[in-house]
């Protein structure tokens, strides 16, 4: 009987864990290497005093095709709780509350945040695109290459109008991906329109978003605190160099941010080289808890979060009101999740105190007196927050999969191989596992 192929998965973020999980199910001998002390990467949760703070990924969506089935496979369906279906957006300094449960979020924003002439321009441009967008996949960025010909700002301003770009698309680009319409591909912008055109059920997990990666990792052979320094193709197989020496594998899945993959792996394949050269946006996520004596202003009650467009912001892209998120996020007072725009990269090296001082005036514009009642602040810095999506990346991902040889010994997974969000990253890991299964590699007989 042929022995099962030995496969190394580098990275225990959600892409790597998903790849490893399905590879194990398919019968491969899988080892996972993770440089940090815990799994999940950007899908992880900190417990700080009495506060449950998601460090990166904030929610799940009802249209997720990979993460939701994983929750079922691991018996975690009871962990899912719905998020309050009301949000808000700032325009002209005013809070525009949006009920996204009854209407698709994009339509709610058009009706509430655009002026009549702006809304008409949007609808005239959007309606001819609706059927095409509806046919495209939520999780497979390669399927969006038809829109990957020009930047988001140029295409959407021409098609939908500048107001729609400023108040519908740009706020989501920053709050979700920390990217600018001027540098992002129209494919990424159009995907936001698709998301906005469909009814959304936003959800979270009672014990934090990191509970799913934690559960997956428990079922796998994961080497934590083990940095991979090199991945070298051999005549037969691949050599992986770690803190503990070298080991030979039949195949390797690189499921780490592209800049890290680019440091440890060299290849003659031009498409792979361009993909691992993908740059990343940065952000800071700040959890702020108040003493119980401070009261949330009445007009914020029942609202999960607010998006702050570029025309309205200094540095804050969004603010989440965590008690509306679902689950017991804190025992007392209010807990906020603040996400800074991608332009906040310069703050990464600043002290926590300097960062809090920087954001205080802008935050208190919306929540007066909250800083005076501050009892806890938790700053998380993400140098590699989300894969940039310049013009051409969707086409390159498409080309990668179309021409991937079954004999390839190093395969790529992660958010730079899809949309820069959690379910698409997980999808990329599952796709690698399915590709290897279909490649006819020897696995144990049932």
UniProtKB/TrEMBL annotation:
Residues 14-434 form the Amine oxidase domain. Gene3D superfamilies: FAD/NAD(P)-binding domain, protoporphyrinogen ix oxidase, domain 3, Protoporphyrinogen oxidase, mitochondrial, domain 2. SUPFAM superfamilies: FAD/NAD(P)-binding domain. It comes from the Bacteria. InterPro entries: Amino_oxidase (IPR002937), FAD/NAD-bd_sf (IPR036188), Zeta_carotene_desat/Oxidored (IPR050464). GO terms for molecular function: oxidoreductase activity. This is Amine oxidase domain-containing protein.
């Amino acid at each position: 009987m042929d022995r099962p192929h030995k496969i190394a998965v580098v990275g225990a973020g959600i892409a790597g864990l998903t790849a490893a999980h399905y590879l194990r199910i398919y019968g491969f001998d899988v080892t996972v290497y993770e440089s940090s002390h815990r799994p999940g990467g950007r899908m992880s949760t900190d417990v700080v005093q009495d506060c449950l703070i998601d460090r990166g990924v904030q929610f799940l969506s009802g249209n997720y095709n990979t993460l939701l089935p994983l929750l079922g496979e691991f018996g975690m369906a009871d962990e899912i709780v719905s998020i309050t279906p009301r949000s808000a957006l700032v325009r002209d300094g005013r809070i525009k509350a949006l009920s996204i449960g009854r209407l698709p979020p994009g339509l709610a924003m058009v009706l509430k945040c655009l002026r009549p002439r702006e809304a008409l321009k949007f609808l005239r441009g959007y309606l001819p695109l609706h059927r095409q967008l509806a046919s495209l996949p939520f999780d497979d960025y390669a399927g969006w290459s038809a829109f990957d010909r020009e930047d988001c700002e140029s295409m959407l301003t021409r098609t939908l109008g500048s107001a729609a770009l400023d108040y519908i698309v740009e706020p989501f680009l920053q709050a979700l991906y920390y990217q600018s319409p001027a540098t992002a591909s129209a494919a990424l912008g159009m995907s936001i329109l698709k998301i906005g055109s469909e009814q959304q059920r936003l959800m979270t997990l009672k014990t934090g978003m990191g509970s799913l990666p934690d559960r997956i990792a428990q079922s796998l052979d994961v080497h934590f605190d083990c940095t991979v320094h090199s991945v070298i193709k051999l005549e037969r197989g691949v050599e992986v160099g770690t803190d503990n020496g070298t080991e030979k594998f039949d195949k390797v899945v690189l499921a780490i941010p592209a800049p890290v993959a680019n440091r440890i792996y060299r290849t003659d394949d031009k498409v792979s080289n361009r993909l691992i050269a993908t740059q990343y946006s940065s952000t800071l996520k700040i959890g702020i808890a108040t003493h119980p004596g401070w009261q949330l202003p009445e007009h914020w009650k029942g609202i999960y979060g607010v998006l702050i467009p570029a025309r309205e912001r200094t540095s804050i892209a969004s603010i989440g009101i965590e008690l509306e998120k679902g689950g017991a996020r804190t025992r007392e007072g209010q807990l906020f999740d603040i996400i800074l725009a991608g332009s906040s990269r310069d703050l990464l090296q600043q002290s926590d105190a300097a960062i809090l001082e920087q954001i205080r005036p802008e935050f208190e514009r919306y929540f007066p007196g909250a800083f005076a009642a501050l009892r806890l602040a938790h700053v998380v810095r993400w140098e590699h927050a989300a894969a940039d999506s310049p013009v051409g990346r969707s086409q390159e991902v498409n080309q990668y999969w179309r021409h991937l040889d079954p004999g390839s010994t190093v395969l790529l997974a992660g958010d730079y191989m899809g949309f820069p969000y959690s379910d698409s990253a997980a999808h990329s890991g599952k796709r690698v596992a399915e590709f290897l299964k279909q490649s006819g590699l020897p696995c144990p007989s049932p």
